Amino acid sequence: MASQLVKQLATNSSGVVSLHRGLSLCEISSGGLWSIRSSASHDLNSFARAVFDQDSQFGEMITCEDLRLIQLWPQAAYLISAEDSLPDTAYEFETLITDIGHGFCDLNLSGDGALVFLNDHSSADLNQKNLNRNRTVRTSLGHFQILLWWDEASNIHILVDRSYAQSFTDYLGHLTSRWCDRDFPQGKSEGSSPMINSAPPPNLKN
Question: What is the pLDDT of residue 125?
Answer without folding.
Answer: 86
